[in-house]
Design brief:
Blueprint (H helix, E strand, L loop, with lengths): L3 H5 L3 H18 L3 H4 L4 H23 L1 E4 L3 E7 L2 E7 L2 E4 L5 E7 L3 E11 L5 E13 L1 H11 L3 H19 L3 H7 L1 H19 L3 E8 L6 H99 L2 H13 L17 H4 L6
Antiparallel strand pairs: 1-4, 2-3, 2-5, 6-7, 7-8
Helix pairs in contact: 2-4, 6-8
Length: about 350
Amino acid sequence: RSSPSARSRLPPRRAAIVPVYCIHNIFASFPFRFLSTSLHPSMIRVLYVLFLLGINLEIVKGVGLHRIPEGHIGVYYRGGALLDRITDPGFHWKTPLITKHYAVQVTVQTDKVTQIPCGTSGGTIIAFDRVEVVNQLHRHAAHAIVKNYTVHYDRTWIYHKIHHEINQFCSQHTLQEVYIDTFDRLDEILTETLQRDIDIFAPGLKIIAIRMTKPRIPREILHNYEKIEAEKTALKVAEQRQKLVEKQADTERKKAMIEADKETRVAAIHLNRTLAAKINEQRIAEIENEMKVARVQAEADSELYRSKKEAEANAMRLTPELLHLETVRALANNTKIYFGESIPNIFLDNQLSGVTKLP
């Protein structure tokens, strides 16, 4: 066996293995007679292996191996003083016994603050059951904030600060304002107030949002508010009903106007159609009259032209010789001849007949 001085000169990992070896020898020399009579040998070996694993894990943990989870950074204290060292997620090594480590979250987290009593300017005591503050600590500012406010910085700037700001707000406003009028803007007011002070004293901590429930108020006041709300609801129902009736009447009026306008437009269309038909008929009649006049005029012109041409033809055809010939023929064709002195005189052209008028 090595001397104590030799053991002290061993490297850290070797020094960690020596106690395990000693425990192994002690465990192997232990008779375990009470287990040999009640357990199977294989079960005894399993228990032996588990025991050795547990001992080794505790030793490794005690000598300085630790893990920083994802979304966190590691900060270290030695002798109560914060070291400048910061580690990322993963396995890391620290000096055993004298160095402590803490995992500080640098991702978005939600802190829940419950049971926040406050008094309004009128003296009424109310309480907020739950306020949720969504915040994030930036990695570059984590070391300074932890140095100034420890790893429990959220107690100072979130839990205690929310209590303070809500009480400040309640003391400056009435119950009506806190419970009804400004409640919809209370989360924004608290966010701005917290962020303004944090930017001055703890830059790097970001307040993303604040969610809160309606505060609890005394039962008697709550009953009065419920009455008021019921009356407001009834009033709103009546107003909506009135608006509905007015809307229906307006709809009927617009519908009647649309129908009347439709009928007017339809009548105008029919009138325009009838007028167009009449105008077309008038144009057709005028065209027909013009055609008749043109036809009659054409016929008259044709008859006049024919008469003129016949007259010209007769003038050219009825020569004296032809007239004498036709007279002779007419007399020859006459089958009855009358003789006597009392017979009317026959008027003949002297040139044709060469006979003078008889007495």
